[in-house]
Amino acid sequence: MPVWGELFADPVMQGKEPDPELMALIPVMQQAGCRRVLDAGCGVGRHLLPLLAAGFQVWGVDYDARVLQLLQDRLKKAAVEAAGPYLAQADLNRLPFVTGAFDLAVSIKVINHGSAATFREYCRELDRVVKPGGHLFINVSPWEFALKVKLPQTRELEPGTLVDIATPDGAMIHHFPTPEELRDQFPGYRLHRWETILSSIQFMGNVEMPQLIFWGQKGR
Questions:
Q1: Which residues contact 119 (CB under 8 A, 6 or more apart)?
Q2: Quick one: which of 6, 133, 148, 161 could link to 2 by a disulfide (CB 3.0–4.6 Å)?
Q3: pTM (global) more than 0.85
């Protein structure tokens, strides 16, 4: 199984379109006065680049150094000024930012990777870095997704946590939350959207799969 750096090195993977659910929110977030944005699990910039083009001040975080180098190369080719975006190599459960640093944090198809405890740590850190009154947008694969990618050899390590599944990164441990489990991580948020939709999964050949959308505003 290729590691994330190898997956993202594929030119086809680098050309994937940004998530339409997030792109549709850009005008809303601009009108809400969001300026400082965190792309948590930025990869090679599928969402970071359009957020930057929309005028946000963007910070991108990914744990894979090779992925971040690919993003740096893309930024140079796009002639993006050296002043932005700001990139950091870090685990998402230990974000290198002060509490309340961002007006908006986004994480697209990232926080599945790890155990249930790791999933909760990711959520805790996303919550920590969003300022009071700020926004959080998450797109994550829910338990309904997991049911569709189970294989005969799939193992359930704990409730909702699987390994050896039918995805390109299937040998990694994945936790698939229920909608209620994700909602419970952010009790102080006003919900703007919380629903499971069918969405095209580009690195799985554009097959439509269930995806859980969470968009909330942190209480002041």
A1: 111, 112, 175, 177
A2: 6
A3: yes
